[in-house]
Amino acid sequence: MARRKKIYEGKAKTLYEGPEPGTIVQYFKDDATAFNAEKHDIIEGKGVLNNILSEFFMLGLGQIGVPTHFLKRLNMREQLVRSCEIVPLEVIVRNYAAGSMSKRLGIDEGTQLPRPIVEYCYKDDALGDPLVTEEHIAAFGWASQQDMDDILSLALRVNDFMSGIFLAVGIRLVDFKIEIGRVYEGDFQRLVIADEISPDSCRLWDIKTGQKLDKDVFRRDLGSLTDAYSEVARRLGVMPNNPPASGKPTLVN
């Protein structure tokens, strides 16, 4: 489709005006970043994989009644989404200790938590997306109490869905983050899952071997990020079992 005006360019995606009012074209880039963009590289095929994986998860959530901004995938790198007002929070759901939680609390990575723990970070790259409490969120008006109740419910529903999907293919969902958008329909506001759901925003470990199949491969120099993401896509059935010799991702027809 013909490109329209660029609205925003982030670390992993570029947003363009959509073909109709209230829509946006979301373009997935091959950029890989870590440590608040201090580490950066271009990983060929990463954007394609994240596009098709995010489509897979968004469609699955829609089928169980979880609202998302996703409308349809346009091509290998672009999808059409509903325009929404992003709540300035990263919503993190943790099933096992890893990453910053292990460092903060001194818990060994891989320790199963007593129950899923939901955390919130204020979206601000300059500040390093600091961890905040519901008291901060209420005091600064980032979301109402009703919004927070709905966000918590959405986050736990996404966790239930994603945990089951990954467990069925031998992958442990350690943690993940989502973003929430507000969609307005007249005077009515609805909260939806926005941005993307992909190995960029999840920690995924092979249940048997503990092999990392997420962006920690890039963060910690553990091998090929494309191979890790391709393995996730293959297990979920959105790539063939025997990819072409070129190693580039290919969609299942």
Write structural notes for this entry.
Its EC number is 6.3.2.6. InterPro entries: SAICAR_synt/ADE2_N, SAICAR_synt_PurC, SAICAR_synth, SAICAR_synthetase, SAICAR_synthetase_CS. Pathway: Purine metabolism; IMP biosynthesis via de novo pathway; 5-amino-1-(5-phospho-D-ribosyl)imidazole-4-carboxamide from 5-amino-1-(5-phospho-D-ribosyl)imidazole-4-carboxylate: step 1/2. One of its GO terms (molecular function) is phosphoribosylaminoimidazolesuccinocarboxamide synthase activity. It catalyses: 5-amino-1-(5-phospho-D-ribosyl)imidazole-4-carboxylate + L-aspartate + ATP = (2S)-2-[5-amino-1-(5-phospho-beta-D-ribosyl)imidazole-4-carboxamido]succinate + ADP + phosphate + 2 H(+). The chain is of the alpha+beta class and about 250 residues long. It has a domain at about 85-205: 2-Layer Sandwich (D-amino Acid Aminotransferase, Chain A, domain 1). About 30% of the residues lie in helices and about 30% in strands. The chain has 6 helices and 14 strands. The chain has helices at about 45-65, 100-105, 135-140, 145-165, 215-220, 225-235, and strands at about 5-10, 15, 25-30, 30-35, 40, 70-75, 80, 85, 90-95, 110-120, 130, 170-185, 190-195, 200-205. The strands form 3 sheets. Strands 8, 9, 10, 11, 12, 13 and 14 form a 7-stranded antiparallel beta sheet that branches. Strand 12 and strand 13 form a beta hairpin. Helix 1 (about 45-65) runs parallel beside helix 6 (about 225-235). It starts with 5 loop residues before the first strand and ends in a 17-residue tail after the last helix. Residues about 240-245 have low confidence and may be disordered.
